[in-house]
């Protein structure tokens, strides 16, 4: 009894979740992590989203007004840039988890992001780099095109490391094995989105207003200064952060499971899952175990102990014998693929917000009292205001009620698309792939942007072949209403597919009882739906 009380006191004092403080020591719970660290992280996310949406929402207007691209070409250019920007996190997340660590990845990518903003500012302010020497021109200078596109793709590279590493670094400040902090982490994702949407809201109101009524260059200077200041703020919070050391390539253990399962494909399954191989009970500072599941049973062969006289060294080779936890991690990734694919049609709809929606806004009567003209890109603010309001209602009213009604700490968070996708991909990946988990979420939007460009090309070709293209030179010669009906039908059909896939999905289960060598999810040894 005395030992148990000492253990509880020790756990309240120190953090045992594989993290360290800024000096590489065991973190002190009272002075590190949780909200005292997350606020610094949310601040730099605010700055990044301010810059991103200040640029992204007005990009199609800049391409059509200044670069003189037609509607179809401008929409494709935006989709390509958005696609690169939201798929680059796959590389950034991999580097963060495997080699650089999340703090270093965020810092390096933020500096690259800042360099992109400075270069973008120069392309609009420095006389020799501006689109025209004076006044307006039918075609911008080639040097402006080169510098402009180099700048925005530098921002894409910066986002690639910034976005997955920062969000998962923020979530790392909460200990999943400590109930008080685990509940706070559920709130973290909601307030993360609150900060995100606050940056979005100011970006699509204040920044685009400056772009429309002052100059593009002044808006870029504001974004560069804000980013520089928040990088300093992020570094000031360094003593309060909890850090996780990079663990090498997270893909290697998955490949080892596949190789071991193929090598032992002819072996019979053991009569009891407890006979599968698992490492001895983990110490507090080691990674958590996952409990055994029955799905994708072929992969279980990677954890079968061979009785063929091989030496212990050969049997212990990671390419010949995998732990149950590694096998279950491979199952998690394979189970996520159908969910990822079924989210793509939703992502295609999201892609329209930064292209056709903005162009439609530009054709509306946006005057208030004949004196104030609302910028076209500010149409994006409606979504931001809605999410800011809903996050507060969701966090303070819905979650407590639904948590009690459903019996889960998550309430019904997975029923809300973007926040739900963030939580889902972060929670359901293996512990060693948390940054990649955020990248998987972003890659849905990234892949959907490329698919949106492909869909525009196909629809344009087919409709032009059968009369008149749905995409003309401008909105007045286009039939976007028919294109939107096509998207609605696609998503209606996809909804049925998603429901079927979701009903068959098995959540990640973390072992609850450390004394069990191989935890069996069906005997209550695991905590379902939890990270």
Automatic annotation (TrEMBL):
Its main location: membrane. One of its GO terms (molecular function) is transmembrane transporter activity. The keyword Transmembrane applies. It is a multi-pass membrane protein. Gene3D superfamilies: MFS general substrate transporter like domains. One of its GO terms (biological process) is oligopeptide transport. Keywords: Membrane, Transmembrane, Transmembrane helix. InterPro entries: MFS_trans_sf (IPR036259), POT_fam (IPR000109), PTR2_symporter_CS (IPR018456). Pfam families: PTR2. It is found in: Membrane. GO terms for cellular component: membrane. The keyword Mitochondrion does not apply. SUPFAM superfamilies: MFS general substrate transporter. The chain crosses the membrane at residues 50-66, 102-120, 191-210, 216-237, 339-360, 372-394, 438-463, 483-502. Belongs to the major facilitator superfamily. Proton-dependent oligopeptide transporter (POT/PTR) (TC 2.A.17) family. This is Protein NRT1/ PTR family 5.6. It comes from Vitis vinifera (Grape).
């Amino acid at each position: 009894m005395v030992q148990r009380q000492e253990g509880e006191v020790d756990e309240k004092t120190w953090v045992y979740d594989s993290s360290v403080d800024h000096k590489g020591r065991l973190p002190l719970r009272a002075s590190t992590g949780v909200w005292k660290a997350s606020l610094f992280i949310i601040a730099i996310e605010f700055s990044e989203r301010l810059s991103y949406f200040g640029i992204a929402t007005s990009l199609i207007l800049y391409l059509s007004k200044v670069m003189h691209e037609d509607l179809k070409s401008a929409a494709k250019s935006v989709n390509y840039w958005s696609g690169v920007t939201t798929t680059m996190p796959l590389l950034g997340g991999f580097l963060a988890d495997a080699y650089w660590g999340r703090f270093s990845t965020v810092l390096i990518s933020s500096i690259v992001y800042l360099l992109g903003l400075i270069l973008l500012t120069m392309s609009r302010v420095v006389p020799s780099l501006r689109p025209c020497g004076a006044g307006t021109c039918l075609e911008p200078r080639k040097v402006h095109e080169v510098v402009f596109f180099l700048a925005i793709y530098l921002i894409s590279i910066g986002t690639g490391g910034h976005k997955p590493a920062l969000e998962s670094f923020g979530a790392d400040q909460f200990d999943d094995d400590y109930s008080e902090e685990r509940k706070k982490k559920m709130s973290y994702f909601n307030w993360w989105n609150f900060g995100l949407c606050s940056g979005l809201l100011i970006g699509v109101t204040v920044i685009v207003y400056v772009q429309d009524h002052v100059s593009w260059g002044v808006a870029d200077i504001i974004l560069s200064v804000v980013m520089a200041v928040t990088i300093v703020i992020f570094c000031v919070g360094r003593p309060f952060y909890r850090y996780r050391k990079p663990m090498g390539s997270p893909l290697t253990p998955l490949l080892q499971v596949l190789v071991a399962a193929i090598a032992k494909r002819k072996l019979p399954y053991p009569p009891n899952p407890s006979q599968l191989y698992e490492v001895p009970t983990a110490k507090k500072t080691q990674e958590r175990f996952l409990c055994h599941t029955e799905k994708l049973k072929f992969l279980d062969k990677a954890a079968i102990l061979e009785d063929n006289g091989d030496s212990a060294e050969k049997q212990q080779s990671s390419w010949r014998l995998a732990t149950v936890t590694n096998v279950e991690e491979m199952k998690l990734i394979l189970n996520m693929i159908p969910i990822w694919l079924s989210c793509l049609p939703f992502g295609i709809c999201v892609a329209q917000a930064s292209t056709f929606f903005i162009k439609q806004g530009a054709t509306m009567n946006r005057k208030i009292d004949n004196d104030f003209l609302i910028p076209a890109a500010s149409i994006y603010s409606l979504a931001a205001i809605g999410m800011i309001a809903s996050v507060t209602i969701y966090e303070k009213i819905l979650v407590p009620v639904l948590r009690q009604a459903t019996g889960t700490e998550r309430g019904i968070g997975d029923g809300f698309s973007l926040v739900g996708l963030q939580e889902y991909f972060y929670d359901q990946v293996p512990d060693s792939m948390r940054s990649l988990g955020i990248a998987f979420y972003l890659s849905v939007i990234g892949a959907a942007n490329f698919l949106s460009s492909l869909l525009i090309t196909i629809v344009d070709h087919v409709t032009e072949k059968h009369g008149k293209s749905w995409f003309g030179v401008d909105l007045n010669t286009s039939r976007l209403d028919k294109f939107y009906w096509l998207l609605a039908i696609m998503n209606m059909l996809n909804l049925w597919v998603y429901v079927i896939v979701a009903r068959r999905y098995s959540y990640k289960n973390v072992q609850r009882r450390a004394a069990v060598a191989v935890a069996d999810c069906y005997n209550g040894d695991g905590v379902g739906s939890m990270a």
